[in-house]
Amino acid sequence: MKASILLSIVCAAASAVPAPSFHARNAHPHAASAIPDYPGIQFGANGKLDITVFSDLHFGEPSNERKDSLTTGVMNSVLDNEHSDLVVLNGDLISCEYVGPDQFNGIIDQVVSPLVYRNLPFAATFGNHDYSETCSTRSMASHMWWDIKGTNGKKLSFTTQSVEGPVEEIGWSNYFIPVYSSTDGSKLEMLLWFFDSKGGRVYQPGANQNRPTTSYVDKRVVTWFQNARDEFNKRHGRVIPSLAFVHIPVQATRAFQKSGKRGEFTQPGIDDEIVGHQDDCPGTDCYHGGDEVFMKALVETQGLISVFSGHDHGVDWCMKWSDDLPTKPTNGNGIHFCFNRHSGYGGYSNWKRGARKILVEESKLGNKEIDTWTRLEDGSISGRVTLNSTYGSDNYPKVDRLESWGW
Predict the structure, then answer these.
(1) Terminus-to-terminus CA distance in the chain, angstroms?
(2) Helix (H) or strand (E) holding 114
(3) Are 251 and 317 in contact (CB under 8 A)?
(4) The pTM is what?
(5) CA 357 to CA 254: how far, in whole Å?
(6) Three-state DSSP class for residue 12
(7) Are 203 and 167 in contact (CB under 8 A)?
(8) Full DSSP string of 167-214
(9) Of 370, 375, 374, which is closest to residue 387 (Cα–Cα)?
(10) CA 399/CA 160 separation, integer angstroms
(11) Sequence-distant (≥ 6) Cβ neighbours of residue 282 within 8 angstroms
(12) 74 and 109 in contact (C-beta within 8 Å)?
């Protein structure tokens, strides 16, 4: 079924404003068209779009209500210290292995409560811990879409699904958000792509069969992405700049880490664990090539500035994939890949919590340039860099290893 509704996402932020309301023919979690008329957002009058990315929140762990309260505190601190036009929840919202089938949507309400309070629009991807026998990502996405509203009564969630197929294979957070010009609400300036890397277990409450999902972006999702991307470029007669968000990083990030090419001053950030990447092969540096099709599609996407991932709590640097790596493809044509800071008190961690910030300026899109940094819970900033043609050779202040506070 395809819904036919009039939808307006209202943003409370001062600089970015919502795009004009328009007919969102397929703006529904069951939509399957390659290029549906999704609602979008608009660059602010100052030509800027400010995105806050929370990753690995891990709400819902047993007997740890204090952890959830502390995680909400992290979100409130970041949002109080940073202007935000859009919030991205980039996977592992819930530690679903501990959550019953009658609990997960109530926990989602906890997760988004700081956003509801501020009337902030948001978009989510699902991570491996959001998939379990007792948690339905399909139901979570539907709850976000239909039920999560701001204090002003307006819809806040962009989270939806654009690809048909079994949820355990396709996932349930593959979609895009169009971003329109600050001066013309009908002129497309940028696309934000969201992908579901899955992992975890298949939703089957009471079955007790422990069936795993695949742990990479499915080929059918890649085909949808390529078709939609190419149709956008053809329709507008130019390459549309873009950013992408996916919870589990691609294997190229592990290859870069393993190569020893990361510099503490050229790619600043914490680097305290081995990168775990997309694939279905268990063990360190074990790889069956599960994400090669996805990596190839990313590399071939002109105008793609950066891909943002979470998953690895002890890593938060950015890399430019410009050198040859032992991957397929071997060279990333200069695409940047960035890790988010671990945001939640649930899940493993020895590092201060925070969120990745992304500042996009409309005037710099032609140069494929954005600024990004980490805003920490204590209000400080870590790892501020500019992702542009010279990133990887420019020097920045070294990021000290930041231990977490006891609690």
Answers:
(1) 48
(2) helix 104-118
(3) no
(4) 0.91
(5) 23
(6) coil
(7) yes
(8) HHHH-S--EEEEEE-SS-TTSEEEEEEEE----SB---TTT---PBPP
(9) 370
(10) 36
(11) none
(12) no
Specify which residues 90 forms β-bridges with: 125
161 touches 31 (CB < 8 A): yes
Phi-psi region of 10 (alpha: psi -120 to 50; beta: other; left: phi over 0): beta
Euclidean distance between CA atoms 404 and 407, whole angstroms: 9
> Measuring CA to CA, which residue among 156, 60, 85 is closest to residue 117?
156
State the chain's maximal CA–CA distance in angstroms. 55
**How many CB atoms neighbour CB 401 within 10 A?**
10
Q: Which of 263, 271, 278 is nearest to 323 (CA)?
A: 263
Mean pLDDT of 70-98: 97
pLDDT above 50 (res 222): yes
Which pair of structure tokens corresponds to residue 43? Answer: 């660059």
Q: Please report, for the chain, the start and end positions of each structural domain, with discontinuous segments joined by +.
A: 5-387
Strands 354-361 and 335-339: what pairing? unpaired
At residue 315's C-alpha, the angle toward residues 312 and 319, to 5°, is 115
pLDDT tens digit sequence for 320-370: 999 899 999 999 999 999 999 999 999 998 789 999 999 999 999 999 999
For 55, the token pair is: 């990753």
pLDDT band of residue 38 (cuts 50, 70, 90) is: low
Structure tokens at 251: 């294997």
Tokens found for residue 202: 């298949």
CA geometry: angle 263, 285, 289, nearest 5 deg: 105
**Can you read off the two tokens belonging to residue 123?**
């978009």
Which CATH fold would you assign to the domain 5-387? Purple Acid Phosphatase; chain A, domain 2 (3.60.21)
Q: Which residue has the tokens 């939806």?
A: 160
d(C-alpha 137, C-alpha 130), whole Å = 7
Q: Which helix (H) or strand (E) holds 335?
A: strand 335-339
Alpha-carbon distance 149 to 121, whole Å? 9
Rounded Cα distance between 318 and 262, Å, is 9
User: Cβ-count burial of 395 within 10 angstroms (0-12 exposed, 13-18 middle, 19+ buried)?
Assistant: exposed
